[in-house]
Amino acid sequence: MRPLQSGLGPVERLLEENTDLAIGTIETLSGVLIFVGTLLLLYVVGRATVVPLANRLLKRRGLDDHARKPLLKLVWFVVVFLAIAVAFGAAGYGSFLSSLAVIAAAATLAVGFALQDVLKNFIAGVFIFSEKPFRIGDWIEWNDHEGVVEDISLRVTRVRTFDNELLTVPNTDLTNGVVKNPVAKEQLRVKFTFGISYDDDIDRASEIVVEEARAHDEILDDPEPSVRLTELGDSHVGLQSRIWIDQPSRSDFVKTRGEYVQAVKQRFDEEGIDIPYPHRTLTGGVDVVNVEG
Q1: I want to staple 236 with a disulfide (CB 3.0 to 4.6 A). Which of 51, 61, 195, 222 is the partner?
Q2: Is the pTM of the predicted complex or chain greater than 0.85?
């Protein structure tokens, strides 16, 4: 039996005691075994603990399956990368790990410049998934566009307009600007201004506006409908009605508002309340020449 070398690690000492390999070969084989063992151990631990924990945290945030899957893939990529880095360090490949880190940093910088728009949209997608300004099925409005969200990915969001056009919107357009989500809450307030003549009874017109709101099945009694005099126009007095509808959608909003406005118009006609149109008075003179011609 050959004498044991000093300064060897446990794995190297075990190989030296049970094999006839040269010291250089033992050191190489020991590094490989430590690398593989560490990588497998961290792989199993990450798969059993880190990924399930991340999945539970994302579920608590209320993210759907389609939103959780890409984020879990990102978490898994980070776990594998850290496992490889730790395994290289445990195996004593410090110089190789440093070189790999320099190469990875340079590659990351180059890819970052080439794909900066993609990366910006990716980060914006992560914010959309985490902050949830809107969900699939919501009706949203932004930059003179509106429609129903059909799909959300980490790069783009797809919105179906009310003309049945499909818009593919970069996520940065929805995070850098103002996005209106009328259906984010369970109730939506709808406003409409009725114009009546200056000669009509304001109190009676206000009563009709509120009565028709209370008579409509889709308009809530709590919060109760209200009406306020909001403007004195050139040819009309503006009465703004404020009503609330429950579990709103774009179709419900348009349907309920149209039925309500039509009902108020019919009552105004029955009560003799006028909805005037603008009048223009022209002044001045007209010169007529060459009449005989």
Answers
A1: 195
A2: no
